[in-house]
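During the no-cost extension, the postdoctoral fellow (Dr. R.K.) reprocessed legacy sequence entries with the updated structure-token encoder. One reprocessed record is reproduced below for audit purposes.
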Amino acid sequence: MPGAYHYATKLNVPILPLFVTFKKNEAGETIYTINVGKPLYPNQALSLSDNKEIMMQKDYSFKRSVYS
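Re-encoded structure tokens follow.
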């Protein structure tokens, strides 16, 4: 089943990497943070499968960078 990277490449639209993290502060309250990365644009010179792989890797790298 095709996913977000497939459709972004096929329709030539960007993926916006984002996810939510949370932690408890000293008072025990949960603090939520929305992490938003730079848009990932498909490269029209590349194949559908290459674009999907590259966009997925960049998205994953952004998420890893937040936790580093």
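Residues 4-67 form one domain. The chain has a mean pLDDT of 95. The remaining legacy entries will be reprocessed before the final report is submitted.
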